[in-house]
């Protein structure tokens, strides 16, 4: 049995079968050192390794587990759907019910298309925006991650018209060159770009709360101004709410900030822990999708009934329990513990936190964009990560990721977590 082997031996076996021993690079511990533990099961806020070690989990499967792992209601919905079959290759009632629920909860969504990953959702939304506007260029922001499709996997540039260079081997420069990279939170650069390319930009895509380089919050009025500029120049505004959708609130960031994007991408929570994603928005744009329109997109397993059932159960739970106020309270407890530890240690720190999402940067000044992130002392994070892991608390194994809180962290677990993180900050050498 695998559980009888040591963690190191298991990971050595993983490396023999999978590049780097993982199926997604972020799961490796390259940025923090050491070897990742192998998880045997997950329940509530706790991961249990194959060696029986328990960890309070602030990764949350990288976002989906807002109700905690292995939630009985979601599991029951999966089992009920499984009893009917694993996939049909035809329309099914589960995909209709989930589509109707998302449209009900997110006012900007008039029609929606189900897919299987956030990468697929953002890639398809970009293609749709290009087909709708008959333009080629897009704008994305440094530090915003939208999956690993070729046109979006590009490095940060400098200046309003610095075009992207491939951020990965295998991405042709010609693909990346249609992507313009701009700094987040700098509206002047956006305005300059539109003035120089007034009728060439198909879409602006962004995480409204960037959460793939730590958590960055927009300056007051920034998102509203982006919307105004997109409307003025006929550019599609795409909110990538893969992380923030249904986590910041039932209506996501767009509800919280009172902004109506043209298209939105979802994943994570709408799958209830299974691989489900979607993109949707204005009907006049969505009707350009095949089979109604000329923009082709397809997926054999899209709308899989088991994934749809899990996602529907997750959204219904959130709708019924409305846990967002309590999640924010837990986030504040964690934030204050980190700040107190840093104050007593005498080291500068920033702790952006909104609802159940938080990160921390070792920096004297607020972090407003990707360049600010690069100036932080990420080596300090390694000390915090290792201390926390030794004490049974699992943080994302990178200084440039966002932590997630679930409803299962309540009570003694959140208090214990705050204590560990307070001491972890004080352990920084």
Task: Describe the protein in words.
The longest helix is centred in the last third of the chain and has 22 residues, at 324-345. The chain has two domains: 2-66 and 323-426, Aspartate Aminotransferase, domain 1 (Alpha-Beta Complex), CATH 3.90.1150; 72-320, 3-Layer(aba) Sandwich (Aspartate Aminotransferase, domain 2), CATH 3.40.640. A seven-stranded mixed β-sheet has the order 4-10-9-8-7-5-6, sandwiched between helices. It has a four-stranded mixed β-sheet with strand order 1-2-3-13. Helix 3 runs parallel beside helix 10. With 429 residues, the protein is α/β, with parallel strands linked by helices. The protein is globular and about 55 Å long. It has helices spanning 7-17, 72-82, 93-105, 118-133, 173-176, 187-196, 222-233, 252-257, 283-286, 305-321, 324-345, 370-374, 379-390, 412-426; strands at 39-43, 46-49, 54-57, 111-115, 137-141, 179-182, 201-206, 236-240, 263-266, 277-281, 353-354, 357-358, 393-394, 403-404.
Give a summary of the structure in a few sentences.
37% of the residues lie in helices and 13% in strands. It is of the alpha/beta class and 429 residues long. It folds into 2 domains: 2-66 and 323-426, Aspartate Aminotransferase, domain 1, CATH 3.90.1150.10; 72-320, 3-Layer(aba) Sandwich (Aspartate Aminotransferase, domain 2), CATH 3.40.640.
């Amino acid at each position: 049995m695998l559980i009888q082997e040591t963690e190191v031996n298991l990971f050595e076996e993983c490396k023999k079968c999978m590049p780097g021993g993982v199926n997604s690079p972020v799961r490796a511990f390259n940025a923090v050192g050491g070897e990742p533990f192998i998880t045997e099961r997950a329940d509530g806020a706790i991961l249990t390794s194959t060696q029986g070690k328990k960890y309070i989990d602030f990764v949350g499967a990288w976002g989906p587990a807002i109700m905690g792992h292995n939630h009985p209601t979601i599991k029951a919905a999966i089992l009920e759907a499984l009893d009917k079959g694993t996939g049909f290759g035809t329309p099914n009632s589960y995909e209709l019910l989930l589509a109707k629920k998302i449209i009900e909860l997110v006012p900007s969504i008039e029609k929606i298309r189900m897919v299987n990953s956030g990468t697929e959702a953002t890639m398809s939304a970009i293609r749709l925006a290009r087909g709708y506007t008959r333009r080629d260029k897009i704008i994305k922001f440094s530090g915003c991650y939208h999956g690993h499709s070729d046109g979006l996997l590009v490095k940060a540039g400098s200046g309003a018209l610095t075009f992207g260079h491939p951020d990965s081997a295998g991405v042709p420069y010609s693909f990346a060159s249609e992507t313009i990279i701009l700094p987040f939170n700098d509206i002047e650069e956006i305005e300059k770009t539109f003035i120089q390319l007034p009728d060439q930009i198909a879409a602006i895509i962004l995480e409204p709360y960037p959460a793939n380089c730590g958590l960055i919050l927009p300056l007051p009025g920034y998102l509203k101004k982006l919307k105004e500029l997109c409307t003025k120049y006929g550019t599609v505004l795409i909110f990538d709410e893969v992380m923030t959708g249904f986590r910041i609130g039932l209506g996501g960031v767009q509800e919280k900030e009172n902004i109506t994007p043209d298209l939105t991408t979802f994943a994570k929570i709408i799958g209830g822990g299974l691989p489900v994603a979607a993109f949707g928005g204005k009907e006049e744009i969505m009707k350009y999708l095949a089979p109604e329109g000329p923009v082709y997109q397809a997926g054999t397993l899209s709308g899989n009934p088991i994934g749809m059932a899990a996602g529907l159960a997750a959204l219904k739970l959130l709708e019924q329990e409305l846990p967002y106020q309590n999640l924010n309270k837990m986030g504040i407890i964690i934030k204050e513990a980190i700040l107190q530890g840093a104050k007593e240690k005498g080291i500068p720190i920033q702790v952006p936190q909104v609802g159940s999402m938080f990160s921390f940067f070792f920096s004297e000044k607020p972090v407003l964009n990707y360049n600010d992130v690069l100036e932080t002392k990420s080596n300090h994070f390694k000390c915090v990560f290792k201390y926390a892991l030794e004490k049974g608390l699992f943080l994302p194994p990178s200084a440039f990721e966002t932590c997630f809180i679930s409803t299962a962290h309540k009570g003694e677990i959140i208090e214990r977590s705050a204590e560990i993180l307070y001491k972890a900050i004080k352990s920084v050498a």
